[in-house]
Amino acid sequence: MPVPQIHIRPGHPDFLDLPWDRPISRWSDPRLVDMPTGIHRHPVVFVAYEEGVYAIKELPVRLATHEFETLRALSERTNRSARPAGLVVRSWIDPGEECSGAVITRFVDYAFPYRELVSGGGFGSRRTQMLDAFAGLLVELHLSGCFWGDCSLSNVLYRYDAGAIEAVMVDAETSRLHDELTRGQRYEDLDIMQVNLAGDMADIAASQGYDLDEADLELGFDITDRYRLLWKELTADLVIRADERYRIRERIRRLNDLGFAVDDVDMTPEGSSQRVRISVRVGGRTFHSQRLREIAGIDASENQARQILSDVAYHEAKYGERGEDRSPTGKAVATMRWRMTQFEPFTNRIAHLRPDIDPIQGYCDYLNFRYNLATERQQDVDSDQAFEEWIDAGMPGFDPELTSQEPETLR
Length: 411
Ligand SMILES: Nc1ncnc2c1ncn2[C@@H]1O[C@H](COP(=O)(O)OP(=O)(O)O)[C@@H](O)[C@H]1O
Ligand SMILES: [Mg+2]
What we know:
The protein is an alpha+beta fold and about 400 residues long. The chain is built from 10 helices and 13 strands. The strands form 4 sheets. A 6-stranded antiparallel beta sheet has the order 1-5-6-4-3-2, with helices on one face. The protein has a 3-stranded antiparallel beta sheet with strand order 11-13-12, covered by helices on one side. The chain has a two-stranded antiparallel sheet with strand order 7-10. The longest helix has 26 residues, at about 330-355. Adenosine-5'-diphosphate binds near residues 41, 57, 107, 111 and 173.
């Protein structure tokens, strides 16, 4: 049996036990698992290992190599794309053949294809969440120098992220990485997205039995509008007087509120006036998730982390002993107590009751439920009681109509 050349990134299985002598469409391996996918050109299968589930996509060697290398370089710049695990070359097959190469990516946990979000002839009450998800994803990819070249509904995976939807890029076959994108490149990418999404929305309408004139052909244009505002908010320079330094702090706080970490701040005098031009370089949308990882060792996506951090602060304020040590050590103890009495027992219960859902998202759903109860009753609700009531109510999630991550300028 011929053995392929396999290049593996550290931390993943070697995949050598798979039947590489046959095309993946003809595999009947015990490791194969069925997972829902978007619409795709190349054959894709999923395999389960102790380390996790992986997606294997078969395509000609040149394309496979390009996709693997792009995903690898991109994963050093942002966490908004699928993680590449391996590149496979079947050297006994003509490199132009479809099954001569394969790219292996880590399955994106708890992610699902867009079909799960469709309601009516489009995205119904989730439309705003989709606008935010796509605009946010494109802005982040563009900030990291990635020209996508094929942004479409099927080339993205979706995950619930507290009251928002997080989008993850999966298909990088057409992508190119640059140090920085020009405005022309960014707008070309947006044009491609608009055309792709119009086609996708027409297909959704047709598949749901709606007429073409009822299709949401505007979705891509609305994403572009939101993208522009967000891009401007993140990249526009600020010109201040030398005695207005508080405005720099304000600007950084605003960017952090949007979830963006700030990497660098540059200050340049404006000519001979007393004015200073401030330009801020933003990093990824990981401000709260980084903070939560630092203080509690919990990995969550950005909006989940923001909400969980509020819960930590709430518990600290409510249950902290009066006059308790407010030093870093005192705070670390309070966080540990929160983790042991709240986060761990509740997420364990969620995982036990609903192994199919992301327990961290479940925890955010419960926090949102507790908040709504308290607002309704005009008083704090005890955590254990709120948790039981949330379970009894069928573990409801966020109301998509009430959630949006839009920049303030859009409100
Ligand atoms: N790492 C992954 N995790 C989860 N699903 C994935 C992953 N990679 C691919 N998929 C699923 O497979 C589908 C096809 O992958 P894609 O790379 O877009 O292939 P193609 O190049 O044929 O369009 C996607 O729509 C997605 O649903
Ligand atoms: Mg694709």
